[in-house]
Each structure stands twice: as C-alpha cells, then as structure tokens.
Amino acid sequence: MGPSNQLSAEPSGRCLRAVRFFTGDMRRCGQWVKRQVLIIQLLDGVLRGTAQVMFVSNPVSGLLILTGLFLQNPWWALNSLLGAFVSTVSALLLRLNRSDAIFAGLHGYNGTLVGMLMAAFSSKGNWYWWLLFPNVFMSMLCPVVSSALSSIMSKWDLPVFTLPFNILTCLHIAATGTAHPYFPEYICTITTLFAFFFVLFFVFLQLFLSVPVGVGQVFGCDSPWTACLVLLALLLCSPAICLHALLGSLKFGAGLALAAPHEDVYSGLWGYNSALSCIAIGGVFYGLTWQTHILSLICALFCAYLALPACTWPFCLFLFCFLFCFFQFQQHVPE
Predict the structure, then answer these.
(1) φ and ψ of 94, to 5 deg
(2) Cα distance between residue 72 and residue 9, in whole Å
(3) Which end of the chain is more exposed for a tag (fewer CB within 10 A), N or C?
(4) Consecutive H or E run containing 145
(5) CA 115 – CA 37 distance, rounded (Å)
(6) Cβ distance 169 to 118 under 8 Å?
C-alpha cells in the first residue's frame, strides 16, 4: 500500500472507531465511567435510564431522547429528568445495585416516565413548581416498588417492565383527581390528554406521521420532531430495535378497526404499546430470528387490540402473559 493510500485510510479508520464507540451499549464508555467520580457515574446512569424506556442502554441515545423531550415541552422534560435522577439516587441509597443495575439505567426508566406523565397529566399547566414535590416522592418509590415486584416476578423469571410506573402514576391520579386544590389532573380521556397539534390536510399523511409519533408517545410526546430524535437514539444503539419500534407502531389499524376517534389514531396513541411489545420480543428478550420476528409482530397486534385507557398497561399485561407462557413451556420441554 502506498503512502497516499495509507493517509486516506487513517481518517476513515478513525471515523469508523468513533462510530463504533458511540453505537451499541457504549461498553468502553461505561468502563471509563466506573473509574470516575460519583457525579459522572450518576449522569451516565440517568442518561442510560432515560434510554432504557426504549430498552436501550446508551447515554448518547438518552441525550438525544432528552433533547426531543425538551423540543416537545421543556417543563415535561425537566420533570422526567428529575424523576430519573431521584429514582437513580434512591436506588443507590437503598443499595439495589445488583450487577451494576443502577448505572445501567435499570432503576431510572420508571422514574423518567413517572416524572414525564405527572407533568403531562397536571391541569395546572407548565412551570407549576409545587408539582416537583409529588414528583420527587413518587420517583423515590419507583425502586422500592420495582424491588418488591422483582422479588415476586423472579420466581417465573419475569422482568417488572414499566409496572412500577403504571402503579404509581395511577395511584397519584386516583388520589388527586380533577378537583384537588393543589394537584388537579385533567379528565382522563385520551383526546384531552394528548391533542395532536399538527393539523394536517390529508388522512394518508396523518397516518404516515402516526407511525413515528407512536414511538414518541412512549414518552407522552406527540411531536414528530421528538419522535424522530427518539428513533435516531434507537438507531444509534440498535438498528433492530429501531426497526421493531416502527413495525410495532404500524398497528394503528387496530384503532381504526375498533372505531377509535381518528384524532387518537393520528396522534400515535394506538401505536406506542405495540411498539414496546415488538421491541421486547423481537429485539431484547429473544435472539433475532425470523421466528421471533413473526412472534414480535403477533405480540404487537394482540397488544394493540388490548385497548386499555392509559399508561403502558397493555404492554405490561400482554408481555407478562406471553413470557409466562414461554417460561411454562420451557419448564415442560425435556432437555
């Protein structure tokens, strides 16, 4: 190889190494973070916790998702960041760091969703600072509820998913209601909670946008720009997860088949549970084969038809049933 070829190969080699460093789960970055001071480790854990909502453990992905949340609503993003930080610190104080679970973000994603949705559901609007107190309290309880559920689910080798978020958020909404003097909630109809503010002229364009927006609705965001940043974050960590998120969000047809209001379908509310289910089966818990790919699509379809009103209850309930049946099947198959 001549000198000119060597010179041209060096920049491309450095670029390739840089791309490899920032993609995947950034293991080399995680090893470097372990040698740093606690505040750096917490920052990495919070960013990974934000990304773990979508089953990825990459701090750059978490940063991209946070950027998207700030584009949607800075107040919601601030509450989600606070929730992730408080739940991570709470898990650290409770010494729940089994197998480095805290700094992998596994105790931060429920806090992220709790903070985000508490701000989205509040009828006091943006920058109502008193909301930070229940946010901190509920986020502190996330690792406690997660640890309690994990001790039960471990008997069947099942993860807790976002069940702590569902339980704590619904408890908060049930305790405050719409008439609370300090923390009133919106009337919990999906159309009121998530109004799609991009008024489009053609139905096919609305349906097209509902696919990426359905992925963004995992964080309660209906902005296409936020959804694109979330998808970019997934692509950065795992192209397979990004693909399954889009395929799962395509199940808006279930909403049309069940005669759901078109505004709900266009705003992605019939896609986010299916997207999570498709990611879990096709990109996380099983190796990527054509069989698991088909299973992930079937799982997403059934999850779309389990039309529960709020949070990620359909995703949790159907995945528990699916993984429990698979666990029972493995128990009865002779080796």
Answers:
(1) -85, 0
(2) 41
(3) C
(4) helix 132-153
(5) 26
(6) yes
Domains of the chain: 30-188 (1.10.3430.10), 193-335 (1.10.3430.10)
CA 267 to chain centroid, in Å, comes to 17
Amino acid at position 81, single letter: L
Strand partners, 185: 122
CA atoms of 196 and 198, how far apart (whole Å): 6
Tens of pLDDT, residue by residue over 24-74, are 888 888 888 888 898 999 999 999 999 999 999 999 999 999 999 999 999
Tally of CA atoms within 13 A in the half-sphere of 23 that contains its CB: 14
- Amino acid identity, residue 71? L
What tokens were used for 135? 């946010």
Cα dihedral across residues 292, 236, 215, 144: positive or negative:
positive
Q: Which of 1, 143, 24 minimizes the C-alpha distance to 84? A: 143
By CB neighbour count within 10 A (0-12 exposed, 13-18 middle, 19+ buried), where does 332 fall?
exposed
Instruction: Give the CB-side neighbour count of residue 256, counting CA atoms within 13 A.
Output: 12
Of 110, 206, 113, 187, the C-alpha closest to 150 is 110
Q: Are 220 and 185 in contact (CB under 8 A)?
A: no
CA-closest candidate to residue 82, choices 139, 29, 40? 139
| pLDDT tens readout for residues 122-156 | 888 889 999 999 999 999 999 999 999 988 888 88
Average pLDDT over residues 85-92: 94
| Residues β-bridged to residue 122 | 185
